[in-house]
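writing this on my phone so excuse typos. first protein, seq and then structure
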Amino acid sequence: MEKGPEQEAAGEEADNEDSQDAVELKNAGNSADVDSYLSKLSRHLARYYEYPRRARRLGQQGTPVIVFEFNRAGELIDHSLRDSSGHELLDDAAREMLTQAAPLPEVPDDMRGNTFTYALPVRFSLR
């Protein structure tokens, strides 16, 4: 069974020293609000998850980590590959998933911050 972002743990927080006004998602409000938003974000991203056929045929597996920044309206500001899966096809698929998923769900009013950073592990597993 393939595993996408919705099966992954809540993710990791981004190490983002460049953008001082961006709030790490885990610090954007009380834990229930943040968890609720993360669930919504994971479901949204999962709709765009696709395991590349060629990577599957080649038996490639891995978990690239994409770090991204977005605003309250869900507009993607920036994204980059923090950790490679070791396979370019999988790394590219993770980046493509994120760009296709934009705009992301709007951030609820009860969460603080204007921009948010998050590090998303995208698991590609043939099991």
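second protein below, same order as before
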Amino acid sequence: MKKYFKARRQKPAPPIVPAADSSQAQGSSSNIASKADHPSKAPSFPDGIKVLYNCPDATVDICFVHGLTGDREGTWTAHGQAIAWPETLLPPKLPKARILTYGYDAYVVRKSVASENRLIDHATNLLTDLTTNRAECNLSI
């Protein structure tokens, strides 16, 4: 089963970088900006699983997944705080739970860089990453 999920892991699509000036696109092909001329400046985002609290004999995993334009750390961290609230508030109340957060490319409103992954791609990546993480920690799948 691990081989199946590893093979299904989808990487975020490379961003589309528009020409510096839209009038260039109407000229000859030598005026069209290439990706080599304008390397993409894709925003970095923390993606994949991050373990906030690890319990070796956990009976459950609780995974926090941010929404559109969010990220796996900033979404769960109060303004002015250094640590995400699930990491500080949940372990004392849920000592037999692993607390995780998951990040994915959620940039859908940026002008030049937007994720082209579909919801099913993000869902598949989440399940793949959770399965892989549990296997790496020698937890049952």
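The beta strands are 48-53, 60-65, 97-103. thats all i got for now
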